[in-house]
Amino acid sequence: MSKVRFGLRVLLLLASAIAVPGRGLATPVVGSFDIGGSSLTISPLSLGFGCNPSLSPPSCPMGSGNFTIASASGDFAPLASTGGLIDDLSTPAQPLNEPFSLPSFLEFAASPDFVLDLQFVFLGVGGQAQCGAAPAPGQTCTPAIPALVTASNPLGLAPFNFMNTQTGSTLSLSLAGVARRVSTGETSPFGGVLTAQFTLPYQSVLAQLATTGGVTTSYSMSFRAVPEPETVLLVSCGLALLGGRRARERTAN
């Protein structure tokens, strides 16, 4: 292939990149990170993240808490051991099992160019058969709460997945959205999992939720952002074209 034809193909590739809405020549967000916080208040209809003055940032806007990044990779690697802010969640502001928009759900103190926009909170999958059973290790439960009944959640399922262990219980919930590079507008889908631990069986935790309306514990969360398929294809095509050109140049020489 002549250099002119190769140049035309590269121009077409770049034009296709620019034609993809909201992307242009921006770089997708790729990587993973784990965070931890000292306080999470769980209620049947909300999650409230605590603000610890010993973390960074030491103060939080109303309706948010702070956290520390325990480990990170990819684009998030430089943020390890730093902190950030995370917004509280509640229904119906962030309805379960249906899309919504919560921009800047998670922000990083060391890099305002990255934010996570939350778009979905999944229903729990633990079932209800063992929610009221006598406590035993291995039991699972996703409680049904009448106040959570909506068209997209007709059974009123909570987002919580409880499981009893030999020494207490754990809670997890799954959420999703996009990781966004503020300077370019480039986004990549992310998935996240929140986990919390209790020294009591979940039957006791549910009883406390029913009587006091909330329970507070520490928490951790894991996030992973990956580029969308068309971005991967675009980069792969570009690398293939460049690789082919270099191979032909070596052959010609």
Structure, described:
The protein has two domains: 1-27 and 229-253; 29-226, no CATH class. α1 packs antiparallel against α3 (229-252). A hairpin with a 2-residue loop joins β1 (31-43) and β2 (46-49). It is globular. The protein has 253 residues and is of the alpha+beta class. It is built from three helices and twelve strands, in the order αβββββββββββαβα. The longest helix has 24 residues, at 229-252.
Strand portion, in percent?
Answer: 35-45%
Give the distance, in angstroms, between the N- and C-terminal Cα atoms: 15 Å
**CA-based gyration radius:** 23 Å
The biggest sheet, with number of strands, parallel, antiparallel or mixed sense and barrel status, is:
8 strands, antiparallel, barrel
Main-sheet strand order equals 1-3-4-6-7-10-11-12
User: What integer is the average pLDDT?
Assistant: 87
- The helix content, as a percent range, equals 10-25%
Low-confidence parts, pLDDT < 50 over ≥5 residues?
Answer: 3-8, 10-24, 230-242
Quaternary structure classification:
single chain
- What is the number of strand segments? 12
Give the overall silhouette. globular
Overall number of structural domains: 2
How many distinct helices? 3
Order of helices and strands: HEEEEEEEEEEEHEH
The SS-based structural class is alpha+beta
